[in-house]
Amino acid sequence: MSTRFSTYILGIWVALGMILGFAMPPIEDRSSGLRLFARQIGYFHIPMAVAMIVAFLVSAFYGVQWLRKRNVKDDALSLAYAEVGTMAGVVATVTGAVFARANWGMYWSWDPQQVGVLVTLITYAALFALRGAVEDEAKRRNLWAVYAIFGCLTACFASVVYRRLLPDGQTLHPKNTLFQSDPIIFFALTFNIAAYVFLLAKVANLRARLEMARDALQEMSWIKA
Prior knowledge:
Blueprint: H1 3-23, E1 28-29, E2 34-35, H2 42-69, H3 72-104, H4 112-133, H5 137-165, H6 183-224
Helix pairs in contact: 1-6, 2-3, 2-5, 2-6, 3-4, 3-5, 3-6, 4-5
């Protein structure tokens, strides 16, 4: 399958997912029986949050691959997936805040889920800064592989595990939104999750190619010097 054709397919997939989200019936919060407002944004918010975790997992995987094989492409992919995962986290946070304002009256309430994602984003921002502070290329890649694993563990605990350990009523976020949804809602969510995961993968691969091109240009400049 050509790159251009796959891009067209992905674009159609994402567009269909958006249309599907707007076509879904009203959602009710089963814990309170209240109908949720701005429900359409949930079909963007939840898939982006899931895609964020997937991107961080893939970033950690390529970090391990770098430690095993010392292939520059693995380092570039690890960095790229971490970057697109962070951007997905920002989008998930913003859309989640809009959803929270529509349903619970405020954009930010220091809900454990909100705090968990915030901790994740701050962690990756710090890791990016640490990578940029190391000048030696080999050392920077070695350290980044460890950073990618640490960041993934932090993201999984702060964004997924932590709120599930809390007693009922401690968070506004239901613990099993995806798996306890009605079949039609489950289909719409998984359809969009797959679309955004592939979208992030597409962007990450493009970003990795740019990173590798940058490294190649730097090496050429050193040789000429």
